[in-house]
Each structure stands twice: as structure tokens, then as C-alpha cells.
Design goal:
about 725 residues, alpha+beta, about 35% helix, 24 strands, about 20% strand, 19 helices, single chain, six-stranded antiparallel beta sheet
Length: about 725
């Protein structure tokens, strides 16, 4: 099983355990297999004690021994690599340059060219020193913040703060300088929450200062930082920071190789859409967490003891302590709720207006049905068009092939065909990738047995071909992509483009991830008979292969260029492969020739007509202009007096609102979007909960306003008009 999944976050995401993207070559049943030896399930838990210096050194040595042995194209672990890891780790520890003092940076700078030597020898000296200094400074920062947030800010005082991170680092020269920097930083955060709470701020350009609103905003910031410092100084702080260091060190080899700490299940859960928990959607409001939605069939739904809108006050951790979750990061709350099948989770809940109550439930299997393939019918000018949305190329949670993304898409195709559609949209916008096997199988829905992709390792080149029973649908086809469509999404769109099967529509390029990863558990076997436990150092997702289009060109770095480009990027904060300094290069291979499918239309005529229509549309020009204005506003130095801050905040919010408005069709021009149902099934017999029905209606309503889908339907109309 190969997994090809794209990135969605900046290098700061290395702070989490999911820095890279890729796949696990092993199944969940193989998760105990060690890199250095094969072991059976242990009778005692494995050692994962990061507080032991020997553990940290061994983890570094073991991980990089594996990387050097198997990585597809390893960059030199030299002084250049060392500087990159050093800078990125300092940035993770101190993202706003207000924790370390300049004297600390001067001490740590001695290691700027030595990190590579330490990694090559399995030493953790740089991490140890950086963490020791950080531990001291973060406690000082906590005291500074709590002291500052006790008193109201002077919102009339004119001062400024650089909020955009810059390469030219400046750290506080002394304690007074650091405290002043924290004061401005916390004032900025309070101003933002003040403005977000001022519902009339846009309507009125000038408003008197509201002390109650300032108090509420400052209290919100205080609660957030209480939890931030609790995590940064808590018992798991060293483990979290060492995981971040390892993530950064591995990601500097290439963006999609990754280190995952022991017991982190999040990648497997994401790719299978399956996990063990209680089965409810978590909501967040003003630092409180609440039960937003109960998932039908989940343990919470079946128990009757958990209600929607229950506020989650505390959760019992694995030490048996009730931990308050107010202000906690959402991923940590989720991790506390999820766990092994059949284990207990205890929560303290409170329904608004009622007394708190404590309940204990057993974790059970929860299958994410919300983020799976789904379809709709779109009617326009007397024609019906099918629309399929696929959020990722996920696997069958039961390890079979019937309920993976390919099987789900095939079922939606059959549903749409029964409704006698005149064309189809496959929407892969925001799809980060997933299973290579699933994308190859899915292609059978649209093409006969055809080459789809080539995968190159150090020692071999393999061709992946779609199954021979296709196509299930052979009519006009469009594929929607954007800059976040990555990996498996790029394999599919590239294959459809190269085979002349579909018109690709989207942003100037897809993400540009052309590598495939496999997972390896790393550690050391113990001796059960002698009571010596295994030692687990975590998991590596390692880049072992590169995939290529059937033309021989890699999608790596360059991505897939759509036939029709709507706009450059969909988001100012999106990133692409080319934004990573450690990205592997693009190259080409000489491959076997292939046969294209018979074109369904005159593609060139369709593309020319679409480009003329887009160029004449004021909406796309307005979106681009407002995005550029918003970018300029976000990069400006923040003015920290209320009057000036309000002006720039409202200007940015106005840009965001105009962008959102332009992305939606006018009321009189909405698309006619209907549910896609099998004609042979009576809708009244379908078992759905009121919540599921409401969410599906909301989704259909959202589709009806989408300007990009509207343009894509126009392309399908052109394809119908230019049939060959």
C-alpha cells in the first residue's frame, strides 16, 4: 500500500507530529514491527522515555541511519542542512522572538554549523542546551504575560509592532526589552479579539472605547496563554519539543519525510477515515469546547448520556487526573478523547443552565462518513450535469476495497448515470492526496485499461495501470483542482489530461508533490522472558519513490498546470511544494509510448472559449485585486492604538468580505442543484438522521453559489456544443 498525500501547512507545522505527508507501507497489524528486528507483541509497554539522554541520542541515531540507507535522494547532511535545522527549531521554540534573549541566541549560535555533526554521530547536545534555556525562559515569559494581562491596555497609546516574521531576527536585548515586546504582542492579540467582538465595528468607522469589551478580549487572551504555558511547561513538554526537533530534522531532508512520535495515530486515522473514540464533532467557542454534533451509531449517540451543546469541562488523562480543557488546543482535546478500542474515557460535562455531570463511556469504532465522496445533480439550460466531490483518496476502513474512495466514486458515477447526465465534474479542490492504489483504481471509472502513473525507486521503475473493466462513464468530464490539490490528486488530474480524457480547471498549478512515502517503525527489541521491554523511537515516513506522469515528466515541484486557469491561487495562506527549501527537484524519464482515448470534443475550442469568458468576467479580476490588497494589509506594521487599528482591521475585513462575495453567484443566478438519488430507490425509505439531512442540504446550497462550479458547468456546455 502506497500513500501519496500532500502538504497543507508552513514549516511551523513541524511543531506537530504530522510534518510530512506520505504513507505507511505496513498495515496497522504490523505496527509493532521494529526497524532493527522483528518482534512479537510485548507483554509490557515499550520504553518511550524522552527524558533519558540515551533515549534521545538513540532515537536520532536510529532515525538517520534508516534515512541514509533508504531515502530516495538524500540531500547532504552538512553545514547548510545544519543551519536550516538550527534556524527552524529556534523559530518553532520562539515564533515571535519574545522568549529567548539575544544572549541566549549568542550561546546557541555555536551549534549553527554543528547540528549536522551531532545528527551524524547521534548526539542531542544542541537540543538539550536549547531546551534547557527554553524551559527557563518560557517560565519567565509566563510570569511576564500573566502580570501584563492583569491590567487594561492603553488603547489610545500610539505604538506599533512588526507582526510578519522576517529573516533578519531581532531578539530582546534584555529583560526590559523582552517585557515591552510581550506587552505589545499581547496588546495586539487583545485588539484583534476586541475588534472581532465589536459587531458594529464595520458599520461605524468611529466608536467610543468599550472597557467591558477590552476586559472580555483580554480575558480571552489570558485563558489562551494559560493553556499555552501549561503545555509548554508541563510534564510532556520535553517529549513535545523533542518530537518537534525530530520533525524539523527529518523534514529538512525533504518536506514529506516525517518523524511521528510513538503512539501518534493521527495519520492512520486520516487515511482510513476510521478511529476509536466517542463519535461526536467537537465545537469551540471563546476557548470552551462543546459537543457540536453526535455521529449516528457512535458510542456517544448510543449511550444517550451525551447531548449536543454539552460543554466539555474536563477529561481524565491516562494518569487518572481530570484535566480542564478550557483554552486547550483542539488537537490535544481530540487526542484525549480518542484511544484504543474498548478503553474508558471519562468526561465532565455541563449542559447550559444545568449542573455539571461526570460520565464514563467505552471508546468504540467511529467511521468518518462526513468526509467521503458525495455527489449532486446540477441542472442548467435544460441539461443535467453530475458533480462528485472527493475530499481525499482514502482507504477502506475494513482493509478491503469496497468502501475506499474508488468504490465510493464508482457508486456515485452509477447514481449519476441513472439520472442521464450530459457531463460530469470531478472536484478535487483541496484534496491532499492519499492512497496510490485507490487513485489508480478510481481511474477505471473514466478510462479503459490505461497507464496512469509510473513510480521510480532507487532500483526499479514500475507502471501503474487502471483496471480493465472501465470506463463506467465516457461522457464529457472536467476536473477541478487548486493549489492544495496534491499527490494522488495530481496523479489523477495528470492522467486525465495526458490521456485527453478531461479538461482540467483551476489555479495556476496544483501543489507539486511528486513523491511517495512508506512508513517504518524504529526502535529496539527487548527480551520478554527477562522482562526487558522493547524500545520504541516512533515512526518514520520516508520518501522512497518518485512518481511520474505517463509522459515521463514528474509532477514534483511543478505540479499540474490546468488547461483553464481561473486565478493564480485560492488563498493567501496556501503553500506549495516550491515554497519548501528542501523540496526535491523536478525531472523527466524516457517512458513507453501510450495511446490517448478518443476525445469527446474539440478541446482547443473549448479552452479558448472558456479563457475568453473568464477574461471578460469582472468577478475574477475583483478577487485578484482584493487578494493583493489583503496581502499588503497583512504585511504592514500593526498600529496599536484603537483608532488606527480599527481602520486597518476593517479594511482587511472588507477585503475578505468582498472576496467571499465575489466567489458567490448573485441570488438571481444561482445554480439549480439537486440531490443525486438512484431512481430505483424511494427516498422515503432511506435512513438518515435530521442532522445528516440538514448538512446535506447546506452542502447543496453552498454548491449552488459557487462561482467556480458555475464556470466549470459552462465548460461542460461548451464540450457538449463542440462534440467530435
Amino acid at each position: 500500500m502506497k500513500i501519496c498525500q500532500g502538504k497543507k501547512r508552513l514549516l511551523l507545522a513541524a511543531a506537530t507530529a504530522l510534518t510530512g505527508f506520505g504513507s505507511m507501507a505496513q498495515s496497522p497489524a504490523q505496527v509493532r514491527a521494529m526497524d532493527q528486528a522483528t518482534a512479537t507483541s510485548p507483554a509490557i509497554p515499550p520504553v518511550t522515555d524522552v527524558s533519558l539522554p540515551g533515549y534521545r541520542s538513540a532515537a536520532i541515531a536510529t532515525a538517520f541511519r534508516k534515512i541514509k540507507k533508504d531515502h530516495f535522494s538524500l540531500r547532504p547532511v552538512d553545514d547548510s542542512y545544519s543551519k536550516e535545522v538550527w534556524e527552524n527549531f529556534i523559530r518553532i521554540l520562539d515564533p515571535s522572538n519574545n522568549i529567548f534573549l539575544q544572549e541566549d541566541i549568542n550561546r546557541l549560535s555555536a551549534y549553527k554549523s554543528q547540528v549536522d555533526d551531532e545528527i551524524n554521530t547521534g548526539s542531542s547536545t544542541f537540543f538539550d542546551m536549547a531546551y534547557d534555556i527554553y524551559s527557563k525562559r518560557i517560565k519567565e515569559a509566563s510570569d511576564i504575560c500573566m502580570h501584563i494581562l492583569q491590567q487594561p491596555f492603553n488603547m489610545q497609546q500610539k505604538e506599533s509592532l512588526e507582526i510578519m516574521w522576517k529573516k533578519e531576527w531581532t531578539f530582546p536585548a534584555n529583560e526590559q526589552d523582552r517585557e515591552d515586546k510581550w506587552r505589545k504582542f499581547l496588546k495586539y492579540a487583545t485588539l484583534r479579539h476586541y475588534m472581532e467582538g465589536d459587531t458594529a465595528a464595520v458599520a461605524q468607522k468611529t466608536r467610543p472605547f468599550n472597557s467591558a469589551l477590552e476586559t472580555k478580549a483580554r480575558d480571552y487572551v489570558r485563558k489562551w496563554y494559560v493553556e499555552y504555558f501549561r503545555q509548554s511547561t508541563g510534564k510532556d513538554a520535553m517529549k513535545e519539543k523533542f518530537t518537534q526537533f525530530m520533525s524539523i530534522a527529518v523534514a529538512a531532508v525533504d518536506p514529506h519525510s516525517a518523524y511521528i512520535a510513538p503512539e501518534d495515530r493521527s495519520f492512520t486515522e486520516a487515511i482510513t477515515k476510521r478511529y476509536y473514540g466517542l463519535g461526536f464533532e467537537l465545537g469551540n467557542k471563546e476557548s470552551d469546547f462543546f459537543v457540536k454534533r453526535l455521529m449516528p451509531g457512535g458510542p456517544a449517540y448510543k449511550s444517550g448520556e451525551i447531548k449536543e451543546n454539552d460543554v466539555i469541562i474536563a477529561i481524565k488523562d491516562n494518569k487518572g487526573e481530570m484535566i480542564a480543557v478550557n483554552g486547550m488546543e483542539a488537537n490535544r482535546v481530540t487526542a484525549m478523547i480518542r484511544g484504543d478500542k474498548g478503553t474508558d474515557v471519562t468526561l465532565k460535562l455541563q449542559q447550559p443552565g444545568e449542573q455539571p455531570r461526570t460520565i464514563t463511556l467505552k471508546r468504540g469504532e467511529v467511521i468518518d462518513t462526513e468526509n467521503r465522496a458525495k455527489s449532486a445533480l446540477i441542472e442548467k439550460n435544460g441539461k443535467k450535469y453530475g458533480y462528485i466531490y472527493l475530499p481525499s483518496f482514502y482507504l477502506d476502513p475494513n482493509g478491503e476495497q469496497t468502501k475506499g474512495s474508488a468504490g465510493d466514486v464508482w457508486r456515485e458515477i452509477e447514481k449519476l448515470k441513472e439520472n442521464e447526465i450530459d457531463g460530469m465534474v470531478m472536484d478535487l479542490r483541496g484534496n491532499p492526496g492519499g492512497s496510490l492504489d485507490e487513485v489508480v483504481r478510481m481511474c477505471a471509472g473514466f478510462v479503459p485499461a490505461s497507464p496512469i502513473s509510473w513510480l521510480r525507486s532507487k532500483d526499479s521503475v514500475r507502471r501503474y495501470t487502471s483496471p480493465g473493466f472501465g470506463p463506467l462513464y465516457d461522457g464529457p468530464l472536467t476536473v477541478m483542482v487548486d493549489e492544495s490539490s496534491a499527490s494522488a490528486s495530481e496523479i489523477f488530474s495528470a492522467a486525465m489530461q495526458d490521456l485527453k480524457r478531461a479538461v482540467i480547471i483551476g489555479t495556476s498549478s496544483t501543489f507539486g508533490k511528486g513523491t511517495a512515502q512508506s512508513g517504518f517503525n524504529i526502535g529496539k527489541s527487548g527480551n520478554i522472558e527477562k522482562g526487558i521491554p522493547d524500545t520504541s523511537y516512533g515512526t518514520l515516513r520516508l520518501t522512497l519513490e518518485k512518481f511520474y506522469r505517463i509522459t515521463g515528466t514528474a509532477t514534483q515541484l511543478n505540479g499540474v498546470t490546468p488547461d483553464i486557469i481561473l486565478q493564480k491561487r485560492m488563498s493567501l495562506v496556501s503553500i506549495m511544494e516550491k515554497d519548501y527549501s528542501s523540496a526535491l527537484p523536478c525531472d523527466t524519464m524516457q517512458l513507453l509510448p501510450f495511446d490517448q482515448v478518443k476525445p469527446v470534443c474539440d478541446y482547443q475550442a473549448v479552452i479558448q472559449k472558456a479563457n475568453a469568458r473568464i477574461n471578460a468576467s469582472p468577478a475574477f479580476a475583483d478577487i485578484d485585486n482584493n487578494m493583493q490588497q489583503l496581502k499588503t494589509l497583512r504585511e504592514k506594521t500593526a498600529l496599536l492604538n484603537l483608532e488606527d487599528f480599527r481602520k486597518e482591521f476593517n479594511a482587511a475585513r472588507s477585503c475578505e468580505q468582498r472576496i467571499q462575495r465575489e466567489k458567490e453567484l448573485n441570488t438571481g443566478h444561482l445554480l439549480n442543484v439537486q440531490p443525486a438519488l438512484l431512481r430505483s430507490i424511494n427516498p422515503a425509505t432511506m435512513k438518515t438522521t435530521p442532522g445528516e439531512t440538514a448538512r446535506y442540504k447546506d452542502w447543496l446550497n453552498k454548491l449552488s453559489k459557487d462561482i467556480y462550479i458555475d464556470q466549470t458547468i459552462s465548460v461542460l456546455e461548451d464540450m457538449q456544443a463542440n462534440k467530435q
